[in-house]
Design brief:
With 150 residues, this protein is α/β, with parallel strands linked by helices. The chain is built from 2 helices and 16 strands. The relative contact order is 0.10.
């Protein structure tokens, strides 16, 4: 039944997943829910969401999603982690760590930007983030300059 449903809907829900009441998938193409996933009541998933494993776990390998959670388009929630009640996962976020209740998570990797109704100061400024490649280039330039002086 699972394979036939996947063929017609584009939604893959493993028969072992546990799903609460009021669960809703909006525009379901590409949704994948793994075998050991647990989904609470009144959870909303948008298209392209994956509740998957990382390949590192034995036993419970998939996330536990609390009640009243919204997971945005394309988000990946991976591993044996817990997303707390009343939380929001932003579109295309990649969540690999536990999310406390009443939180908003965005980005890659997922970062908590709001908790219990209060904004959390998290820099999502990628322009001023240290660039490891540029740091290596600058270090090489210094070495070349030093060698040229010798």
């Amino acid at each position: 039944i699972s394979q036939v449903s996947r063929h017609f809907t584009g939604i893959e829900i493993h028969p072992g997943a546990k799903i609460g009441q009021g669960f809703f998938i909006d525009h379901g193409i590409g949704v994948v829910i793994g075998e050991t996933a647990i989904i609470g009541d009144n959870v909303l998933l948008y298209q392209g969401v994956t509740l998957g494993g990382t390949g590192l776990e034995k036993g419970k390998r998939h996330p536990t999603i609390g009640n009243n959670v919204v997971i945005g388009t394309g988000a990946k929630v991976l591993g044996n982690i817990t997303v707390g009640d009343n939380s929001y996962i932003g579109a295309n976020a990649v969540v690999i760590k536990d999310v406390p209740p009443n939180s908003t998570v965005v980005g890659v990797p997922g970062r908590i930007t709001k908790q219990d109704g209060k904004k959390i100061d998290v820099s999502l400024d990628h322009i001023h983030t240290l660039d490891p490649i540029m740091q290596n280039i600058e270090e090489l330039e210094k070495r070349i300059e030093k060698l040229e002086k010798q």
